[in-house]
Records
---
Amino acid sequence: MTARGTTGTRWVLVWAGVSLVALGLSMGTAAAAEPRPLAPLPKAEMPDPAKVEIGKYMFFEKRLSGDGDRSCADCHIPEKGWAFPEPLSIGYPGTLHYRNAKTVMNVRFAKYFYWDGRLDGGNDLPTQARDAMTDSHFMAADGRIMGQRMKQIPEYVKMFKKAYGGEPHFGLIIKALGDFEKTLVSKNVPFDNYLKGNKGALSAEAKEGLALFEGKANCIQCHDGFMLSDGEAHALGVPVNPDIFEVKRYTTLRSQQMFLGTPNYRNLKSDPGFFGTEKNNKYFGTFVTPSLREVSKTAPYMHNGMLPTLESVVDFYNEGGGPAVNQDPLIKPLGLTAAEKGALVEFLKSLAGDDLGYRTADYSEDKRPPYELLKWVGQDN
Amino acid sequence: MISTALRLLAVAAMALGLALPAWAGTAKPVQKDGKTYFEIDGELFPALEPLGPPPIPKDNPQGVDADGWPLKNDPKVKLGHFLFFEPALSGDGSVSCQTCHVQGAGWALNSAISRSYPGQSHWRNSQSVVNAAYMSKLFWDGHTASLETQAPSAAKGLAGNGKQDMMTARLTVVPEYVEMFEAAFGSANNPIHDAWRALSAFQRTLTSTDSPVDRYLRGEEDALDEAQVRGMDLFNGKARCIMCHNGKLASDEKFYNLGLPRQPLFSNIAKNQIGFRSQNYGAGLPEEMFRKTKSDLGLYHRTHNHEDAGLFRTQPLRFIEYTPPYYHNGVMDDLFEVVEFYNQGGGEDYILKDFGYSTKTDRLKELNLSDDEMDDLVAFLEGFSGPEILVQIPLLPKPPERVSTK
């Protein structure tokens, strides 16, 4: 697969009813496309604060998972860059994940959700929330039951009444989650401040890193635009994480690939990535380019967490990535000096904004509102 | 299980036209078209009969002996035996069939309301799986018609919260299970579908057919004592039990509202209320009913016919000694309470109270049974339970620490 110009390839597939000719043309002309310039995050409209407030509680609410022991925040930890600090994420009790948890910061701008791009982004955050909440390996929730659970927490009922004029139900829960996530946008980012004219916002070293990013290191080929991501799938040759063969992780991989209808799902020796979404061999082992915003807070890196630090990521690219069957031709040795590598890391650090101030401990079990009895309408309890 | 010889003897006796069993007492059997009935209120109800081998569906065959009894060494049965105890068949890998169908508790649960997965509560009483093989309406509202469809409903629903793909993957990473599926079904290509079939085959070996009542019905006159025989006469006549608890299964598998007391757990404990209300919500109750009802509406959940509100399927009676508490909401702790309840003509119709129309069955009337008669009836009901059925707890195959791909 090529680096650029694959924008719309999925839609070509859809529109043209899988016209391989169309696909070939689209792919063939793609390589030379010009990356979009880097830019500060756009101003984005913020949702109704009353709805955001509900979404915030829902984000930290473990009772929104089947057995009441997992919340969104368990894998998207605010103190860990809203991601998970281990190479591979955890999962619903009894399961473990086989991929690294991505940050939810700035997710409202994502083109696709998940490493394998299996959900369209485009601001449809409630759909992603529903997907994660009902998936067997994330929260395994039955939406009908979740609605009833929230109805028996009077504090929440009041909040829903105020924000939506009605009772909690699953549709509103995922909407509120989406509205909360819309507020998770980087704030006071040095790089953005620099682009807006504050030339002192970046150190000299970071500025040198920016020049490398756009020049010699050519990161911008895929990490372009204001999200520093083209939102497309590429193979880099990141080594397979041997831990995906741990039985609980591999079980999740097999379960999910079975669900996606991935060919040969029982014999996978590595994560098929975007192939599981598209079922086209070109995409085997490709993953959607992550945004680099907040990147210094979300170690370890790559879809399987195999690169522990930003330094190791830069080293990986400097060496031309690793062997991969569909490796992107843009990935090649860069010949960066130690100082250049340091500068690049310095630039990457300038992409993180202020801490938004959320603390997991504020939503711990002893602080959350309890279930209360509900009165029957028209008769005594 | 009764010995083959005894069964043959009984069959031979039938063939000779002997009056079997001895229907002693006041309730007089009526013969019609070669079958025995008891007449109550001008209607004929099939007499109790001993149980033979369970029916085996054509689309899930299993090995049987010469008399049609399922063989325990059938590969499907062996696999089903493992799977019955296998918590991989749930959402978080902690709930197996045995969690709610405990063999030491009559293959049911000795609590009013069954268990759900961790963090969630159930809303109905767990029923014994013993003799479930004979039933055509499973669950209290009869929402599945076979063991093969009952199993996934429980594993994926309020009991297990299992998801199809995860359960499938969990089975396929265990080489021993792959071998067992291959032995039982020829392949391990669709293990979750076949898991339900194997579980069904296993449950067809969990039959109780040698209770004192069965033996008596086969002609063993001393299988029931005098009190039990008197109780049986009441059962067939004055106490009107035979109207619903009839035929081979001691159940007509039809649906009735008895006016059972409400289960206070749904009004007194928030977590139980969540289980109860989520099921009402999931069944799509109209809003007014949903907000008002603190009683389980039973068959209405399936049909949404108003006349079905509060109706539950007649429970078979074999093995009941092991499975208190009783009824869909577990409100009766023992058989004495049950008999007293019927003696009073059942209870108040909560459908009438809540919604202004009655669905309570008119078969229930005050019975005017004396204390002695009620004791006799309980003694007879106890005669429906043969020896406890216990199986070996299997040593489950462990998943490998790591999956090797070839």
---
Amino acid sequence: MDLTFSEQETAFRGELRGWLAENPPAPEPSEGGEDEGREGTHFFWRRDWQRRLYDAGWAAPSWPTEYGGRGASLTESAIYFEELGRARVPMAANVLGLLLGGPTLMVWGTQEQKDRYLAPILSAEEIWCQGFSEPDAGSDLAALKTRAVKDGEEWVVTGQKVWTSGAQYSKWCMLVARTDGEVAKHKGLTYFLMDMEQDAVQVRPLRQITGEAEFNELFIEEARIPDANVVGGVGNGWKVALTTLMNERAGLGFALQIRLRQLLDDLIAIAAERGLLEDALYADALAELHVRCESIRLLAWKGLTDVEKYGQPGPEGSLVKWLWSDTNQRLTQLAADVIGPQALTAGTSWSYELLRARGNTLEGGTTEVLKNIVAERVLGLPRLKATA
Amino acid sequence: MDFGLTDDQREIQRTARELLAERARPERVREHAETGRTDERLWSELCELGWPGIAVSEEHGGQGLGRVELSILCEELGRAVAPVPFMGSVLAATLIEHSGSQSQQERWLGDLASGTSIGAIGLARNGTAELVIGAPDAQVVVLVEGEQARVLAVEEVEVTPLASIDPTRTAARVSAPAGAGETLDGDSAAGVDRAIVAVASELVGVCDRALEMTVAYVKERKQFGVPVGSYQAVSHRCAQMLLDTEKARSTAAFAAWTADADPERLAEAAAMAKAAASDAGREVTASAIQAHGGIGFTWEADVHWLYKRAQLDAALLGGAKSHRARLAAILARRAGSPVG
């Protein structure tokens, strides 16, 4: 066990920290106006930030150098997210392309696909979104119904997708559709890159409990996808989708635990200022959050170093996501107790965090599904036969 | 950055587990627990192998290995709920080594490392520690009272054996007159925090075994024609047991590492580890009994030894709440300082 960083890793951190200090993002655009307008402004702000990262070679350090990255190790990549979190900069606009789409193409894409798609992901020239979930296929993703039928050199796609964040700004959608209805449900799927700029694809914002619309519904009516946009071969969509989902837990997971740490530090500072750390009940609750937060950090690092050492993540991924989501919910509720009802004034960051945290135990795998994964794949418990 | 054990550490873990699987079988643990006796044969074997001195410096007759290696043994002995006075003895040695003077170290450590002497440690109020694990077997006792710790030969204290909730270990009430023994001259926190980490590691082992037994049981036990472990009410309970165990394991491993490599963070890390491990020990072993169903409440099922060990360890050297209170004080100091 050695929880220190190597010289090279420390140098990597130092270089990035120095760059971030000298190149802060533009100030966040002020709020106000129509919902969509505000979100658009916010999105463009994030796109500008990604371009600055890109110009300095910091958009995706974990990508191989041949595709414009720095070939950073997993540890360096985690340091990257730690430092971005520490500097409190916005999330890059094309986060799904950078963390999910690009790495999936690097595993499954043809040379032509890599040459065509990777560079514009990095520069935020083309934004990517993820078309996996459907109204009737959430946790049971393989039950999805969106259908793709071959027509000459093209596929014709019809169906509906949901929870598609950034769809209104996206050029490409990572779309999983059913290409064979005759085989077992996991086997009849194919992974496509669908051009979002066609009338056959309609985007409808999905207003969430925070009032904003991070996510969308996609209504797809005979959209056209050239055969060249199949990723990983026809009928292989489930495997390709799993690559995307694995990257989702690894990369995003690390960034999220840093955000949690910041919120907790903010809350502890407020509690300290009000003398609440001397109140036994508040002290106990805040200390428990600190233990959880540190445990999440340690488990996240352990998961990462396991991948470096053994080539695959241990069970920590599911545990980290589970513990993180539950802890974020507790934290944001405690904030309302520490600060008082003014924390719940509409439009304040704490009221937003409180509401947004409710989605944490749902997005990226519900807690119930994570518990199933832990029980079945880590503990080896038998699976209850589904009745349908 | 590497969270794994080194090859040598892995080897220590493997040999310890194999040895205890053989020598501390459940029926043997039960036999000693029922009579309230220490397993003398196992204890002398462990002493011959140098276990009590694993973290004691070579200068004082130990193996000179680190706190991580000690934690590995604590975890394995916790898994086995072994009826030996290991914990008290290594904790006494820890206090003397990290908080005692050179002459105190010279006087006590050699015999503790070899197992010639057995040690015990207790938290005292007004000179009396109400429950000290291993004290009936001990020749040397360390009593910690507030910021002060003193080391006493058994002749200097009054030892009244008693039965605790955990009959896999002996226990006693220990009283010392004011002024008896020698005050440990150094910073008592340096020793106490390391001792706390060792107890947290034992709790991790207890949790690990409780989960292992539970998973094996719910895979086998059938009701309504299917293994009960296929019901999510049961399987999700098992998943929660793993989460609690891993939370304790990660913080305990971190604390053991800081003790050797980054002592400035030891106080915080030890408090985190004991808070997480105390809670996990109680929750996970309680869940083990629940998931075993009625059989889990029987004497024969052996789950209760883990539950009892966990209850006592959870309270030893401060329960979860007292360690969270310590943590809050650390957080308050940090929030008040300008360094981010």
